[in-house]
Structures
1.
Amino acid sequence: MQSRRFDKDRDLVIKRAKKEKVINIVNVGFDLDNCYKAIELAQTYKDLYATIGIHPHNATQLTTETLKIFRKLLKNPKVVAIGEIGLDYYRNLSPKETQKQAFKTQLSLAVDHDLPVIIHNRNADADIMQIISNFKKNIKGIMHCFSSDIKFAKRSIDLGFLISFAGNLTYPKARNLHDVAKLVDLQNMLIETDSPWLTPQNMRGKRNESSYLPYVAQKIGILKNETVDEVAQLTSTNAKKIFNIP
Ligand SMILES: [Zn+2]
């Protein structure tokens, strides 16, 4: 929601989301500038929350200075998680070793503050699993925009992670993801927009926004033979629990 693409109609977007019963919105940071913006929005709107983190694309930004700033920002009660953090070996916009170091440092930060993490993972299953396993279940969080296989999903759940599906689950060609969604219990599942990206099939081509989230719930309902309400209720409960939102 902190994207410039919402500057002209942010109030309306939030209203439209409410109309679709998408009430609490967690805006996820990916670089320092973006984290500030997410927090600013969370201060402005009662139902909005923020996370702070340096995305693997921007891993070189995670300096001692940035960490100092993060520690200060974490005093704000509306900051509910560390993320997006992780590894992206698909686009490799930062060197692998830098990505790994930034990931580990931010996982430790989350442990220190007893906060969940939001993990971004592209083509990096093995390294992600190895690194989070080293934290011996002291870390909890979310596998965001899940795109791995069922084996990875199960291992993540064993370590205390939730599996989060975004708009790409609604794409007809995403059969592998459909299979994973069928096998993951709703108790271990979240839904998200990844807005402004990954617009659900029905709205494809447009900017993605929070009011389109029910399309993801609908798809999961179809795949798992559950009602949309059941999917919506359970995934909201899971989200509130992991982010500690009242
Ligand atoms: Zn991501």
2.
Amino acid sequence: MEDSPQVKRYHRTRRVLGVVGFALDLALLLILLFTGWTVSLRSVAERFFPVPALALLVYLLLFGAISQGIGLPVDFLKGYWLEHRYGLSNLTLRGWMKDLVKGWAVSAVLMSLAIEFLYATVRYRPAHWWILCGFAFIAFFVLLANLAPVLLLPIFYKFEPLENPALVARLLELSRRAGTRVQGVFEWKLSEKSKKANAALVGLGNTRRIILSDTLLAEFREDEVEAVLAHEFGHHVHHHLAQAIGLQALATFLGFYLVNRALLEFSRFFGFTGLADFANLPLLVLVSVGLSLALLPVVNGHSRRMERQADLYALRAIPERSSFISSMEKLSTLNLAERRPHPWIEFLFHSHPSIEKRIAFAQKL
Ligand SMILES: [Zn+2]
């Protein structure tokens, strides 16, 4: 089935805005580097705060403010205007701004912690910083995955234990059969912000839980909710999280290794005083972004294979495959998903196979 012109337009606009936002970020990094403004920014920070850690914090706040300021129009168009235009959002402008500021605050705290740690390691262990930071950042990712449902998600959303004993029992039985333990089933109050539907298995270890958006609960039958969750448990059964952490670890070490080489190679060219000179941060970010971009098709290709495995598990775990098919239909309608994206777009950017392919796969099983 061909996507409607409305769906195509929505996704085309999203992609254009995504590319514009990315180009602006890239331009800022290049301008800071090639004009030497990053060095001036560092000098200003150091003049007021001679202690390296404090000067770095000031530099980071200035850098963050400039970058968020430049990105704001695109954030608004993508996060507010577009979602409203296509009737997907329930947020008021005030509510959207509140979330935006919260997002800035959270990322300011997390990024400052990570980058302060990175440059402190560069200062004290300049020869081996990239190995030490590799291990530390992976531990940080795992810790964040564990803390997300209890620390990060509640900053943006309300959750309540799901009051539907029959559905809770059904989902817990599904989790038992998948051999995983969850700490409860929660209703995720998404409708105050969005009309889109979502469900997930979040957290790690003692924080692992099922979350179901109220928008999903309002539209989906119980067998459809079961189908959606069965897919999530498929990821668990096939150890996809461990694989993802392993891949992330490889990419992190490779990234830090390349950053180390680039900083050593180009320090003098850009006028940095040495490896520990945090004016080199735009170069560090540029190398990381370049690597992520280069790895994107590989990462997405691997992700689509994992999604297919999870679909296969789901289709075998539920009584009727028609529940899976109708859950896909409903998700694509509610979320205005592209059922048949251009093959190149899917290959490069999509972490999931297209809805059309997932339904076809279920039908021919
Ligand atoms: Zn999945």
